[in-house]
Amino acid sequence: MSGHSHAKNVARKKEGDNKKKGALFGKILKAITIAAKDEPNPDFNPRLRTAIEKARSANVPLDNIERALKKVKESGDNLEDIIIEAYGPEGSALLITAITDNKNRTISEIKTILTKLDAKPANPGSVLWAFEQNPETKIWSSKFPQSISQENIKKLKEIISSLENHDDVENVYTNINFD
After folding, report:
1. Which of 2, 31, 70, 130 is the 20 to 30 Å CA partner of 138?
2. Tens place of pLDDT for every residue, the chain, 179 residues?
3. Bridge-partner residues for 96, per DSSP?
4. For the whole model, what pTM was predicted?
């Protein structure tokens, strides 16, 4: 029965859960930090208010939220928003939003993910025109939704999943109907 310790199995499971939770908390706290740059008061900043609500629903400790807000006030943190455009299967448009402290690293890593999954990075502005952004929530939506084959929907979902697993990626928007 060597290697079958109940305590070891529990520890291994908790370690995996804690790693996932830590990555989620990190993404949410980055979103809070970047949203607080414009206006640190959530009463006057809908994007910050939404990020804080998302943090609370994910059970991020209040101390961590306050620390992220304090970091912005003290240092003006060097995080920045970036938008990366790409084309997926059947010419589907992908708009990738990320928050990073190193723009070149993040863009390079995202391009690598796209290339491995047969998606193509696009030039700035070549995909953005097909989307519009809600000025308050900063959420993008497609102006011209399209349909693609079921096989390519599976490929597109794989691309989106891989991108969302990247630490710096906040959201991935597409112009494809998944119905």
Report:
1. 70
2. 455 788 788 778 878 777 788 788 888 888 888 888 778 888 888 888 888 998 999 898 988 888 888 877 765 567 788 999 999 999 999 999 998 888 999 999 999 999 999 999 999 989 999 999 888 777 888 998 999 999 999 999 999 999 988 888 888 999 998 76
3. 84, 172
4. 0.69
Tell me the CATH class for 6-75.
mainly alpha
> The dihedral of CA 93, 97, 98, 103: what is its sign?
positive
> Closest Cα partner for 163 from 88, 101, 110?
110
CA distance 77 to 30: 10
Domain limits, the chain = 6-75, 80-174
Do 88 and 49 contact (CB within 8 A), yes or no? Answer: no
Closest among 110, 108, 103, 107 to 159, alpha carbons compared: 110
Q: Residue 85: beta bridge partners?
A: 95
- The third-level CATH classification (topology) of the domain covering 80-174 is Alpha-Beta Plaits (3.30.70)
Contact of 179 with 150, CB cutoff 8 Å: no
Secondary structure E strands in 60-135: 80-87, 93-100, 120-121, 131-133
